[in-house]
């Protein structure tokens, strides 16, 4: 602009002129800013150019000056024709540094091309973008920029609005926090709604349970999952009397029998902790003050996920039932006592039979011996005399009968000691044949007819006992014959489910129903004209029962008798 | 037949003792016959007579089982401990009624010559003489 050939005076003059221009520029800028002037002239390389804020009005200018966004006007060569205080402050520079400068100088190098593109697009109409700007202090700050072409006095300028994005970035962060908070709140709301739904479900279930429990004829109650009473139905109040002063949860304890309290609490605690069904008998006091036995039962009521929502229980009056059971228990105890006593008596009886057969033996053989000794001492003629001889005869008969009875008692006592079942099959035919030979004189003398039909050939029994059974039954059939007709006896065997059956049927005297029951008693005799000790059938029954079998008698007075012996197979 | 020097009957039943004495006398089995009413009396007799081999020491004892004061089993226990020299010369036969299986078992384990079922008969005495004294009753 100046040449070195200028004199000091020229320089001073030039200096003075420049200072003047500077002052003028300051005043101008002030004037533009304050709205004092509407146009300005800028000294360009081709002389001053005049910019006029055509139609600009004081209000807009104030708005632009006071807004926090940066606003600037760019000439087509990129010179900042105007900038507001907001822009200067965003860039951390004096306004004077900004106006007249090249805007590119605030743009970091890597973004210059991008900016050039935005400017190019801006001159074509409008553009928008984001880029960092360099501040006075050095840090880059992100900005969004938007451009717009304006026309001043037929000259186009590019109006640029610069917005600090760092604040927006913070807002974005805050918004994220807010969104997160909102999510938490919404989750809590959902949880609250869920809990509310669950509570309503519990209440609905409880209400439903209570409605049903009102209708049943038992005392009924519900508790919460912790076991606190939540409801008692009307039956409870009918039973205990109406009491509105005692809290619901304490009512039952007030009426429970003190002796049942501990057991009930233990049972209840167990059920509550395990979910097991509750069942117990206890006593509740009614309004008359009497305790009655109740059967208390309760089950947990669960929701769809299996959680216990409540316990539903009933108390049923079992007082009469329980008393009846106690009476039955007592009766059973008496029966057991009686049985024990009978067992003792039976053992005593067995021992008695043994002892009797044993201890009577010596004295009776002594009597017999002494009788013999007496006979030796008596003069022969005295012995032959009447009534000595019949007396001696009767004495000998009595001794003989006594000895026979003792022998049979001995047999019985031996029989009672027999145990276990014989496993050897015994040929029935052989045994029957032998017995028949023994009884032949009796059969012959009575002109008896004996028919034998053996379908089953063997039985599992002891040979000796089978002989006794057959002998007793056949000899009985002969002994108890009817005087009106010749004896007809039939002996048959056959096989039945699980048994071999031996039947001896006669057409003899027969028995009435009353006698049949006593038939197998020891020393039972129904016909006193017949010889016998009455012990035979008792022995038969014992032998058969010892082997796991049984006897059946069919008899009709005056028609005949049939004995059926069942031997297990 | 050569008679036994001495026999001892041990039974609490007087009738049994009477009949058995009668039988032994009739059969001429023994010179001398002692009678004791229970085990204790029998022990006393043995202590008295059997220190030396004298005629009063019985060579045959017929012993009942059931007796008051001391029964047959208790007598045999005490007899085993008796300080007498003639033990080996004494034959003990137990006289029983029909035996309880438990008693049979017990008797069989005893250190005795044998046992007989009551009542005592001529045949049974003859068996004892043959088995233990190598002699027999004269044939009738």
From TrEMBL, chain A:
Residues 355-569 form the Histidine kinase domain. Residues 171-212 form a coiled coil. Residues 56-100 form the PAS domain. Its EC number is 2.7.13.3. Gene3D superfamilies: 1.10.287.130, Histidine kinase-like ATPase, C-terminal domain, PAS domain. GO terms for molecular function: kinase activity. This is histidine kinase. It comes from Hymenobacter negativus.
Automatic annotation (TrEMBL), chain B:
It holds the Pfam family Response_reg. SUPFAM superfamilies: CheY-like (SSF52172). InterPro entries: CheY-like_superfamily, Sig_transdc_resp-reg_receiver, TCS_response_regulator. It comes from the Bacteria. The modification 4-aspartylphosphate is found at residue 64. Keywords: Phosphoprotein. The keyword Cell membrane does not apply. Residues 6-133 form the Response regulatory domain. This is Response regulator.
